[in-house]
Amino acid sequence: MSSTLLEQARMGHEELEQGVGKIVKLLSTETKTHKQKLMQQHKVLKEVHNMQATARKIAAHYHDTDESRKQEITSMTGAEVFGSFYGRMRELREYHRKFPNLYYEPEAPEQDVTLADDPQILGQFTGEEMYGRFLDLNALHTKFINLNGTKAVPYETYLSLFLDFAAVPQNVKNKGYREYLSGLLEYLAAFLSRSQPLVDVNALLKAGEET
After folding, report:
1. Would the CA dihedral through 36, 37, 41, 47 be positive or negative?
2. In this structure, how many other beta carbons lie within 10 angstroms of the beta carbon of residue 128?
3. Of residues 141, 120, 5, the one with CA closest to residue 61
4. Looking at per-residue confidence, does 137 or 90 come out higher?
5. If you average pLDDT over residues 118-138, what whole number do you get?
6. 43 Cβ partners below 8 Å, 6+ apart?
7. Long-range contacts (CB closer than 8 Å, 24 or more residues apart) made by 9-17
8. How many other CB atoms are found less than 10 A from the CB of residue 45?
9. Which DSSP symbol is given to 120?
10. Diameter of the chain by CA atoms?
């Protein structure tokens, strides 16, 4: 069943209010473990994204580039008001005649506003990452020790030197090394996005490039 543009806008504003309420409840919930903090940040970010999508729809409604909103308001006034009203009523009756058993199930008030584990969020991490507590550099370690000119150092040794770029011999810094560095940057940026989702990673990267 299609709703009017004005009703869609009203529902959009209501969704924004509900989103704010969910975020307030999430942020006011005490977090006692690392996993709960992770759930809190990811679920807040999810609500922010939902609200942004809704706000874009509302903005498009008010911009009214095709003047459909203006036409709808016009149809509610003047000589056409009753024709529009009865036309809408016929549409509603026809819809309910086709779907007589349809009913509205309101959204559960507690949905997405608890810090309960979410498999989709936890599934973003490997076992070694322990839900964002530790880095998993095993794949990058393998790439590093396979570069021409590097030594096959143990993983534990690699962890102590992988950020010491000045210690890497000059003869190692070739195309393969640049590809390795690109992979390292990509992993670290993605890890930060997953482990601290409310941090603006792009802003950090941009600031790093400017320094």
Report:
1. positive
2. 11
3. 5
4. 137
5. 96
6. 26, 112, 113, 115, 118, 121
7. 9/58, 9/61, 9/62, 12/54, 12/55, 12/57, 12/58, 12/61, 13/58, 15/50, 15/51, 15/54, 16/51, 16/54, 16/55, 16/58
8. 15
9. H
10. 86
Between 78 and 29, name the one with better pLDDT. 29
pTM above 0.85, yes or no: no
What pLDDT sits at residue 111?
52
Distance in angstroms (rounded) separating the CA atoms of residues 98 and 129: 52
- For residue 24, what are its two tokens? 């307030």
Spell out the alpha helix ranges (H) of the chain.
5-28, 34-63, 68-75, 81-98, 119-122, 138-145, 155-161, 175-195, 201-210
Q: What is the tens place of the pLDDT at every residue in 3-36? A: 677 888 889 999 999 999 999 999 999 999 999 9
Residue 172 phi, psi (nearest 5): -85, -25
CA–CA gap between residue 153 and residue 162 (Å, rounded): 11
Q: For 140-172, what is each residue's pLDDT tens digit?
A: 999 999 999 999 999 999 999 999 999 999 999
- Residue 1's pLDDT is 45
Q: Hey, what are 162's tokens?
A: 């992988």
User: DSSP readout, 166-199?
Assistant: GGS-GGG-SHHHHHHHHHHHHHHHHHHHHHSTTS
Q: Is residue 147 within 8 Å of residue 178, measured between CB atoms?
A: no
Model confidence at 139, in pLDDT bands (50, 70, 90)? Answer: very high
CA geometry: angle at 42 spanning 185 and 123, to 5°? Answer: 70
